[in-house]
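== Sequence and structure of one protein ==
=== Format: two labelled lines per protein ===
==== Data for this protein ====
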Amino acid sequence: MAATLESLIGNFKSTRAHYRDGSIELCVTAGTLEEAIRRAATAAHPRWKKHIHQRRIPDDVLEAVSAKLLTRIDRIQSATTFDDLHRIVASCAVAGFAEMAIYDTALRLGMRLKKPPTAVYLHAGTRKGAEALNRNIAGGRLNLSKDILQMHELPAPLQQLSPAEVEDFLCVYKKYLQDRSAPPDNFPSGIGCCATSGPGRLGC
């Protein structure tokens, strides 16, 4: 039986309820903002050397971004929105530090500073999920020529999630949004893009 958007969201909510992003938690609990910036940019993680999203980025690239961000610590501290943080991180990006790393770093800082995203930022697998959603469910109504989707633009069922959750959902469930199939009972075996084994290992 074809999966509905509502059933996929239900699956997402039930499985994601127990997931905690270790990299975000390390940033939130850092003793100083300076340390939080270092942890955010270098994708520090309590279980792995670094967050799986940034596993292929050389350490010297992450350290270079970290150093640039630390020179903007006052701007980071005074940021009033997630978009401010995202722009600051983007301005510090170097070769090899692409759009997903920019978003993830901004998200970690945003959660530290209580400035979460208020819109859905499209990148990598999230954009593929949005394309599948637009083609198969939203009837082509989404404007995907831009890199940000406002929550009110999304189908109503998705508006019950937070913007960060929608970003995660579009990435993790892109296959099922594409072919409208129902995920297996053990999906995802690890939650979100951070799954390291089994059918949850989809990556963004």
Notes: The longest helix spans residues 99-112. The longest strand covers residues 119-121.
